[in-house]
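Example 9 (inverse folding). The structure is encoded as follows.
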């Protein structure tokens, strides 16, 4: 399993999970969690990913402890706090850190906030598509 961690598990980690699942295709298990889950997936994250054909509407915010008894091969953190709070999972082989701005802190009206979500989404697409390409090349 590839586990993507963030503090709140409401925006960046879910966006990265959706992008990575699509980029890797079947044969890879990808999940996301947080060290202090917000308890919801941000509506603008759901909307920004829907614009590129990725459905996050069924996602839920989860605590990273949910995965401590799972075989996690790779942990990818997408924010500094999660990187610092990240435990080592049994069987973990790889760890990566790709920091992104937190779009949940975007200010302004909804259109201005959505613009920040789109920018972060596009950055996540670039990084995680490249990561997926590397993983697929290793096969």
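The amino acid assigned to each position is listed next.
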């Amino acid at each position: 399993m590839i586990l993507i961690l963030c503090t709140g598990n409401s925006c960046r980690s879910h966006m990265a999970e959706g992008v990575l699942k699509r980029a890797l295709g079947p044969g890879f298990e990808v999940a996301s969690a947080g060290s202090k889950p917000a308890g919801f997936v941000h509506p603008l994250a759901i909307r920004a990913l829907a614009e590129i054909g990725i459905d996050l509407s069924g996602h839920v915010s989860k605590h990273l402890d949910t995965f401590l008894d799972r075989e996690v091969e790779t942990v990818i953190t997408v924010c500094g706090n999660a990187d610092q709070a990240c435990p080592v999972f049994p069987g973990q082989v790889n760890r990566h850190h790709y920091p992104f701005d937190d779009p949940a802190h975007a200010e302004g009206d909804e259109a201005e906030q959505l613009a920040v979500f789109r920018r972060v989404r596009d950055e996540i697409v670039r990084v995680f598509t490249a990561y997926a390409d590397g993983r697929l090349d290793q096969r």
